């Protein structure tokens, strides 16, 4: 039996794509392996968002070159595939920088993997064209299913934030039809999924063909999916503030399956910086939007992305970011030092912020965000929360799952609870997980 190893970097979209690539190879007779040494095909599903992410690929390829040589000496063939956003951005350049690579395939072309692997036996291949056919129409059924699943509903981005490579690596916004998404969701639910996260680079800009042939928005789509038998929880990510339409905000108040968690990247609290970033909204517009969401769902947990040290960012402008964070209060967040990316407008700008200033700002921001996260986690101690059990826990006899607010919880229960919702009394909050006890006399909701 041939074996395939897939390693994914970057966002949830890449994680989803990685599972679909495994499905494509599975249909060709490959089994998945987590041991790279025994893999006949190694796929690196790469991310181009920051310099560090892209650099990782080449150091990994260096290790793979050695491994491929060792396997060759033992008479074993190894195909090395670079997929994802570095593949899309750098294309054939990867072949010249890394002679060990056999196939370079972009995010829109991985349904062609079997053909590309076959062709690579005579000549190294690059496939990064945006194809005319829809890859989703050419993907086999999903194989690996758990209690939670990602489902791509939208790809690409038309926003062109001045710092970001995504519009170039993932192309223009394209939405799948409600019918296609519903069919995939039904299969996931039949396979045991209980929570579905609708994903897209800009998921709330979703505008697919509805069941009636007209245009459907994200809330329209969510209502169709929420009605499917077996679905307990619905989430979506990642969103842009400018696409938080009133019907989407309203859905947070009146769609029970929609979980009280919103990841809404803001990037900066300074209007001058937001404008330079081409975000097309102000800090106060973001505050007002959050107030609207909280009005319909007061317990919503908020999450965001931040960039510090964008070109020209002054100390006072950075402090406006801290003020925004203090004003809003986030349950979790990702924060990054600005990293100039080839091909993006901001990469050409001269007024770079020195590295030591970036480091200091990142640390100050993360200290504040960490304090907010700890306070949020600690607020659950003593409370009973519904946990959707996903997998076996860290220790024997334990299971792990998540709360409606997306906090990981560990508690003692048999693995037969996987895929069910169990009420758990939280006894302790760690920095990343909660620890609790199943509430014995409460009925276990299916
Ligand atoms: N579509 C999403 C996420 C895009 S990438 C959105 O619109 O928010 C995820 C995060 O990476 C971004 O939100 C941003 O905070 C960060 N990021 C993107 N480009 C970056 C860059 N050049 N340097 C540092 N961080 C970056
Ligand atoms: Fe990148 Fe901006 Fe598009 Fe998000 S909205 S993917 S940050 S260009
Ligand atoms: Fe990275 Fe591409 Fe996602 S650049 S963040 S893997 S869309």
TrEMBL record:
PROSITE patterns: MTTASE_N, MTTASE_RADICAL, RADICAL_SAM, TRAM. Residues 2-122 form the MTTase N-terminal domain. InterPro entries: Elp3/MiaA/NifB-like_rSAM, Methylthiotransferase, Methylthiotransferase_CS, Methylthiotransferase_N, Methylthiotransferase_N_sf, MiaB_methiolase, rSAM, rSAM_horseshoe. Residues 143-375 form the Radical SAM core domain. The keyword Phosphoprotein does not apply. Its cofactor is [4Fe-4S] cluster. Residues 378-440 form the TRAM domain. SUPFAM superfamilies: Radical SAM enzymes. One of its GO terms (cellular component) is cytosol. Its EC number is 2.8.4.3. One of its GO terms (molecular function) is metal ion binding. [4Fe-4S] cluster 2 binds at residues 157, 161, 164. Keywords: 4Fe-4S, Cytoplasm, Iron, Iron-sulfur, Metal-binding, S-adenosyl-L-methionine, Transferase, tRNA processing. Pfam families: Radical_SAM, TRAM, UPF0004. It catalyses: N(6)-dimethylallyladenosine(37) in tRNA + (sulfur carrier)-SH + AH2 + 2 S-adenosyl-L-methionine = 2-methylsulfanyl-N(6)-dimethylallyladenosine(37) in tRNA + (sulfur carrier)-H + 5'-deoxyadenosine + L-methionine + A + S-adenosyl-L-homocysteine + 2 H(+). [4Fe-4S] cluster 1 binds at residues 11, 47, 85. It is found in: Cytoplasm. Binds 2 [4Fe-4S] clusters. One cluster is coordinated with 3 cysteines and an exchangeable S-adenosyl-L-methionine. Monomer. Belongs to the methylthiotransferase family. MiaB subfamily. Catalyzes the methylthiolation of N6-(dimethylallyl)adenosine (i(6)A), leading to the formation of 2-methylthio-N6-(dimethylallyl)adenosine (ms(2)i(6)A) at position 37 in tRNAs that read codons beginning with uridine. This is tRNA-2-methylthio-N(6)-dimethylallyladenosine synthase. The gene is miaB.
């Amino acid at each position: 039996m041939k074996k395939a190893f897939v390693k994914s970097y970057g966002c949830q979209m890449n994680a989803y794509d990685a599972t679909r690539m495994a499905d494509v190879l599975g249909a060709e007779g490959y089994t998945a392996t987590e041991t790279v040494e025994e893999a006949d095909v190694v796929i690196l599903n790469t991310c181009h968002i920051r310099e560090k992410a892209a650099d990782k690929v080449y150091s990994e390829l260096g290790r793979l070159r050695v491994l491929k040589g060792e396997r060759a000496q033992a008479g074993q063939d190894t195909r090395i595939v670079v997929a994802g956003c570095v593949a899309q951005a750098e294309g054939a350049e990867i072949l010249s920088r890394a002679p060990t690579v056999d196939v370079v395939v972009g995010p829109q072309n991985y349904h062609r993997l079997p053909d590309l692997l076959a062709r690579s036996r005579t000549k190294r291949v690059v496939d990064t064209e945006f194809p005319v056919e829809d890859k989703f129409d050419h993907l086999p059924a999903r194989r690996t299913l758990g209690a939670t699943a990602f489902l791509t509903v939208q790809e690409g981005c038309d926003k062109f934030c001045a710092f970001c490579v995504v519009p170039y690596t993932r192309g223009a916004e394209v939405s799948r039809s409600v019918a296609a998404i519903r069919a995939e969701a039904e299969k996931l639910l039949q396979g045991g999924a209980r929570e579905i996260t609708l994903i897209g680079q800009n998921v709330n800009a979703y505008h697919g063909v509805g069941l009636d042939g007209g245009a459907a928005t994200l809330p329209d789509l969510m209502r169709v999916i929420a009605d499917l038998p077996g679905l307990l929880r619905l989430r979506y990510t990642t969103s842009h503030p400018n696409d938080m339409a009133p019907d989407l905000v309203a859905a947070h108040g009146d769609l029970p399956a929609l979980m009280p968690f919103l990841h809404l990247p803001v990037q900066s609290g300074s209007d001058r910086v937001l404008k330079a970033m081409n975000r097309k909204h102000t800090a106060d517009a973001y505050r007002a939007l959050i107030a609207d969401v909280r009005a319909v769902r007061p317990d919503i947990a908020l999450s965001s992305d931040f960039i510090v040290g964008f070109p020209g960012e002054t100390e006072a402008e950075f402090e406006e970011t801290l003020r925004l964070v203090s004003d809003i209060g986030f349950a979790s967040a990702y924060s990054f030092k600005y990293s100039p990316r080839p091909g993006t407008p901001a990469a050409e700008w001269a007024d770079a912020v020195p590295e030591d200033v970036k480091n200091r700002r990142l640390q100050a921001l993360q200290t504040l965000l960490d304090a907010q996260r700890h306070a949020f986690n600690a607020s659950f101690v003593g409370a009973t929360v519904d946990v959707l059990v996903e997998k076996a826990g860290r220790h024997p006899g334990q299971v792990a799952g998540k709360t409606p607010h997306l906090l990981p919880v560990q508690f003692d229960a048999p693995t037969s609870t996987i895929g069910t919702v169990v009420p758990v009394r939280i006894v302790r909050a760690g920095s990343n997980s909660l620890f609790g006890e199943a509430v014995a006399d409460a009925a276990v909701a299916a």
